[in-house]
Design a protein that fits this description.
It is built from 13 helices and eight strands. It is α/β, with parallel strands linked by helices and 323 residues long.
Length: 323
């Protein structure tokens, strides 16, 4: 593991701590990051997406992906009954095959987090709650903190916050940095995932800057999207974010996670992301501790494909609950 020799009182290597000293230093650091080669990252993402996986490895990949799913419902019509049903699916993705791995977490709104916590008690499955005025991220810091505290009081073990994209695109980087720090403090022991909403950031350079900004401020994960904006997760954007956490590890020795969310619906898509994780960040990231899928329909297809691998024929969707 990387071990930088000079660290500040904050625990960051000195050059990174200097970047957070004030708004001017932070802006200088973020705009001094190497530019992203758009053609290069898109070609690499496309090339890695063509990799084929043999049968034994495919079953491992499917089980790994199932164990990385944050099974999500974030609709205005959500009810406690729907959340309990989702928790049952997270516990037993394939009721006929109890050896199927459980999902990593269930992700809900703060007011439904307590229901999910009760339904998942003793399972080891996390409860993630969106917060900070999801999905817009537009309100006062006091309201965002209250939203976070509501989720944590309800027992959420993970908090998915959203940054104010308007502030980011206006260059108010220190505002976002301080906001992430304050949400991190309010979240306490809960893991903090910082949603960048990459579909609104316009360029890969902005994705890289937002990724580093979230990492500098203490985000445990960087997450692509709310799932409410198109485009949501894409392979090239995820490559940029995976490179950011890899570079962060090289600079600090700290492992931080990545969560693509929105638009990942098939096993083929999930495997493409797992290949990217291994090749861009490294094999250490092939764990739910450092990589998640934010999805609602992906789990059903993974279960169908798992049955296909084991049975040698395709199972009809009637036999598996598919959202």
């Amino acid at each position: 593991m990387a071990t930088p020799t000079t660290r500040s009182a904050s625990g960051l290597p000195a050059e990174l701590a200097e970047a957070t000293r004030d708004d001017t230093a932070l802006r200088r650091f973020l705009h001094g990051l190497p530019g992203v080669d758009q053609v290069g990252v898109e070609q690499r993402a496309a090339g890695l997406a063509t990799r084929s996986i043999k049968k034994a490895s495919k079953l491992w990949a499917i089980d790994t992906a199932i164990g990385m799913v944050d099974l999500t419902t974030l609709e205005g019509a959500d009810t406690e009954g729907r959340v309990r049903s989702l928790c049952a699916k997270a516990r037993r993705p394939d009721p006929d095959r109890p050896e199927t791995p459980p999902a990593a977490a269930v992700c809900v709104y703060p007011d439904l987090a307590e229901c999910a916590v009760k339904a998942l008690d003793g399972t080891g499955i996390g409860v993630a709650s969106v917060a900070t005025v999801f999905p817009s991220g537009r309100s006062s810091r006091a309201v965002k903190l209250a939203d976070t505290e509501l989720a944590v009081r309800a027992g959420a073990s993970e908090v998915d916050m959203v940054i104010d994209r308007g502030a980011f695109l206006s260059g108010r980087y220190m505002q976002i940095f301080e906001e992430i720090q304050s949400i991190k403090e309010a979240a306490g022991s809960a893991h903090l995932k910082v949603i960048l909403e990459t579909g609104e950031l316009a360029t890969y350079d902005n994705v890289r800057r937002a990724s580093w900004l979230a990492l500098l401020a203490g985000g445990d994960f960087i997450k692509t999207s709310t799932g409410k904006v198109s485009p949501a997760a894409t392979l090239p954007v995820t490559h940029v974010m995976l490179q950011a956490v890899h570079d962060w590890y090289v600079a600090t020795g700290e492992l931080r996670g990545v969560k693509p969310a929105g638009g990942i619906r098939t096993t083929k898509d999930a495997i493409r992301y797992l290949v990217a994780v291994r090749e861009v960040a490294g094999p250490e990231w092939l764990s739910s501790r450092l990589f998640r899928f934010g999805a609602s329909s992906l789990l059903g297809d993974l279960v169908l494909q798992r049955r296909t691998q084991l049975d040698g024929h395709y199972s009809a969707p009637d036999y598996v609950a598919v959202d």
